[in-house]
Design a protein that fits this description.
Layout lengths: L1 H10 L7 H6 L2 E8 L10 H14 L6 E8 L4 H14 L4 E4 L3 H14 L2 E4 L16 E3 L4 H14 L4 E7 L2 H16 L3 E8 L8 H10 L3 E5 L2 H14 L7 E4 L4 H7 L1 H4 L2 E5 L7 H14 L6 H20 L1 H6 L1 H10 L2 E3 L3 E5 L5 E2 L2 E6 L12 E7 L1 H4 L14
Parallel strand pairs: 1-2, 1-3, 3-4, 4-5, 6-7, 6-8, 8-9, 9-10
Antiparallel strand pairs: 10-14, 11-12, 12-13, 14-15
Length: 405
């Protein structure tokens, strides 16, 4: 097992801490559980590993050592929970980072709570992590479905997009995102003129759905789809000239890595919500420079930024508690994380609520035209900013048992 552990650590590009040093200081062990080859590899994957390593590098020599290992969960909830359990039982992992995929994240959260460890969730979007299935051991950092629906729906109405038509992938995530966004559109004074739902998986021709959306006359076409469906639908919408004819195309969940895959000629005019953009300000640019220079990483997504920020705040908490004390109880460590204000270059100042939801501003962006883009990855124009306490679900509405414990 020692040889295997050294091999994993070396594969991660990290120095193996000698036994003599380990005897002198406590060692915190982090496991980045991510998607290295599947649909979330671009928004999470190796970039999540690099961002976590960046946080560790910035927090070196604080009285304890830190190790990182990683694994690909293959987007399978049973595999994800099996890896997490093995990490806790055999490898001494103290905290799990990232965990893309809502089903995988909920499965891992259950194991983390059972083993009294820490989960730093950046990639999963399910708002259930801070609702009925909230845990004293989990922090959800970057985004969730409620925030996406609220920011994109309500903010678009405030910006004049007061009539909507949805093109939706016909499965649980797609239909729930449509329902949530519809609620915010109507609450803000807008109207929903209809929707067209396409079968999942297997749909490649979206022309009939886009024709219905255009014929509705809606100012905004809400796209409730992700991954390859989102990319193919947006490509076909560009061929139909949706944006050129005056309608806005709003992606209910999209990452800058999707824009990069589409390129500006196709994605221009698309509207989306994110909590991080690498070129937002001097601090986000400084973080991006560090992680790209130190680890040859891609331009970071908001998920990568969340891995960095959540890990950094966790390590600050460990330093405040003492590593030996932090290792005793994940729930106690998360409680201390909630008691400390958050502060980092990706999200600025913020806080973590009792339900585990990290609060920070949410940004409504429009994808630039090729003519407006000045340099590589110069993709977004900021339209609106929503404060975190307004963007994320009110604490009293989630049904988290911790709120009234």
């Amino acid at each position: 097992m020692t040889i295997q552990r050294r091999a994993v650590l070396q594969a991660a590009g990290l120095a193996v801490i000698p036994r003599a040093r380990a005897a002198q200081a406590e060692t915190i062990r982090l496991g980045v559980l991510t998607d290295l080859a599947g649909p979330y590899a671009g928004l999470a994957g190796n970039g999540s590993i690099a961002a976590t390593r960046q946080a560790v590098a910035e927090f070196a020599d604080r009285g304890f050592a830190t190790e990182i290992i990683f694994a690909d969960h293959g987007n399978k909830p049973d595999l994800a929970s099996t890896i997490a359990r093995r990490w806790f039982d055999q490898d001494g992992i103290d905290a799990v980072v990232d965990v893309p995929g809502s089903a995988a994240a909920l499965a891992v959260a259950n194991v983390v709570r059972e083993k009294n460890k820490v989960m730093l969730a950046s990639a999963p979007g399910t708002a259930e992590l801070t609702a009925a299935q909230c845990s004293p051991n989990t922090v959800q950092w970057t985004y969730d479905t409620y925030m996406l629906a609220n920011s994109t729906g309500a903010a678009m109405v405030r910006a004049g997009g007061d009539s909507w038509f949805f093109v939706t992938t016909d499965y649980a995530f797609g239909t729930s995102m449509e329902a949530e966004t519809s609620r915010f559109v109507q609450a803000a004074g807008g109207k929903v003129l209809g929707s067209a739902r396409f079968p999942f998986p297997g749909t490649t021709d979206f022309s009939a759905y886009l024709i219905r959306a255009q014929a509705s006359g809606a100012k905004v076409i809400g796209v409730s789809a992700g991954g390859a469906d989102l990319i193919n639908l947006v490509k076909q919408a560009a061929e139909f000239g949706v944006v050129r004819q005056g309608q806005k195309l709003a992606a209910l969940v999209m990452f800058i890595s999707d824009v990069h895959a589409l390129q500006l000629e196709v994605a221009q005019g698309l509207v989306c919500s994110e909590t991080f953009y690498w070129d937002l300000n001097d601090r986000t640019r400084a973080f991006t420079t560090r992680v790209k220079r130190n680890f040859a990483a891609q331009t970071p997504t908001m998920v990568h930024a969340g891995c960095y920020a959540a890990t950094l705040h966790y390590l600050k908490t460990v330093a405040a508690m003492g590593a030996a004390e932090a290792k005793k109880s994940g729930a106690a460590t998360v409680a201390r994380m909630k008691a400390m204000p958050t502060e980092d270059d990706c999200f600025g100042p913020g806080l973590i609520r009792v339900d585990g939801r990290a609060l920070h501003p949410v940004y409504l962006f429009e994808v630039k035209s090729p003519q407006d883009s000045r340099f590589p990855w110069d993709y977004y124009k900021l339209l609106q900013t929503t404060p975190g306490e307004q963007a994320f679900r009110p604490l009293a509405e989630g049904g988290c048992p911790l709120v009234h414990a």
